[in-house]
Amino acid sequence: MNRPAPNYTGKVKRVALLGATGSIGRQAIEVVEASPELELCALASGSSDLTALAAEHDVESVQTGGDLTALLEATEPDVILNAVVGFAGIRATLWALEHGVTLALANKESLVAAGALALAAQERGGGLLLPVDSEHSAAFQCLEGRAPESVHSLVLTASGGPFRGRSRADLVDVSVDEALAHPTWSMGPKVTIDSATLANKGLELIEAHFLFGIAYEQLEVVLQPTSVVHALVRFRDGAALAHLGYPDMRVPISWALTHPERGPVDLPHLDLAGGLTLEFSAPDLDTFPLLALARRAGEQGGTYPCAFNAANETAVAAFLDGKLPFLGIGDAVGDALDAVDGAPARDLDDLIEADAEARRLAGRGVHLSRGAGSTEPPAEVPALPALERK
Ligand SMILES: NC(=O)c1ccc[n+]([C@@H]2O[C@H](COP(=O)([O-])OP(=O)(O)OC[C@H]3O[C@@H](n4cnc5c(N)ncnc54)[C@H](OP(=O)(O)O)[C@@H]3O)[C@@H](O)[C@H]2O)c1
Fold this sequence. Notes:
Layout: E1 13-18, H1 23-34, E2 38-45, H2 51-56, E3 61-64, H3 69-75, E4 79-82, H4 90-98, E5 102-105, H5 108-113, H6 115-125, E6 129-131, H7 134-143, E7 151-158, H8 168-171, H9 176-180, H10 189-197, H11 199-212, E8 219-223, E9 229-235, E10 240-244, H12 250-258, H13 290-300, H14 304-320, H15 326-339, H16 348-368
Parallel strand pairs: 1-2, 1-4, 2-3, 4-5, 5-6, 7-8
Antiparallel strand pairs: 7-9, 9-10
Helix pairs in contact: 1-12, 4-6, 7-11, 10-14, 11-13, 13-14, 14-15, 14-16, 15-16
The structure holds NADP nicotinamide-adenine-dinucleotide phosphate.
């Protein structure tokens, strides 16, 4: 289990912010601006111009696209906040862990794709891996200091997204705008679509498995529509600890950047006496097949989680681009996973190859787009023929 010892030294922490122009990146800048103990030393984006942002925050080192490890080598940050979206964040994650630099990780896709490699790199580097995902930040805090044998299971909560309670027939014609209208969180487009399909909770299951060393059968997902309960840990004596708060990513961002101090965040406290009620229910795995597909990919291990992620990224991009219906996302990912060979994940090259193969297969699924109009779950769909590997 990932259990850091406090190592705060009291000096100003230099933060390298990767994905500075995104939803997490912008909120991280607010957190840094509000804290005298944090300063930005490097900024990175995919293609957005960083000139104005860098000038505003007096940051000399910036990078747009490419391999971000050169920026990290040059700036020697105390903390790296990886808020890049997608597999593109993988080199920075591995670099931080290998070099023992504290990694505040929002980029869940890199841990999903490279879980075993990332943990091995952390073992060698000896640094901290602090989750920024709200559920994992919550779980980390509930698990901190607990004996692993006392933990019965971990419960990740999901809002259920904008389509909670809908049937597959209801989802045949949903638009991109409807899928982007998340009820509780304001986030970047990719993670918002992942929340609508429940792929996000699938990625988070795999992320939790690697972060906390908890077996998949001890990982549970429940819906909690208002996103006030972020995670629960059940213990062997029947007790459960939960982490509660209004949904605001500045809380887990601040927690990770100021760890172990838990710096202040200017947000309202829960209004308990005002009539706060909490409702829980089971997710609908037939209507939202990506959660079960992710769990299966996690259990299969090797490059399957990497392939799940890559196929999902491809399908989500196609949906956002109007080239795939909403239900086609699950179909394309399911078909791609049936066709990949699940090779072992020995090094980064294996992952890059698995990622590319799954993208090719999912791209083919998008092309065929047999998901349009389907109201049946995709589980029994025959696998696409395997494509020749590079
Ligand atoms: N948003 C949330 O509330 C939230 C919550 C939990 C977890 N997360 C996770 O946090 C990560 C970021 O999410 P987000 O919602 O902030 O996404 P976002 O708003 O789409 O922002 C993505 C950021 O990544 C940058 N980027 C994209 N490709 C890149 C590349 N090749 N190299 C360097 N930077 C690149 C983008 O730069 P450009 O501006 O140039 O495109 C942008 O700054 C995701 O892994 C997501 O799952 C987000």
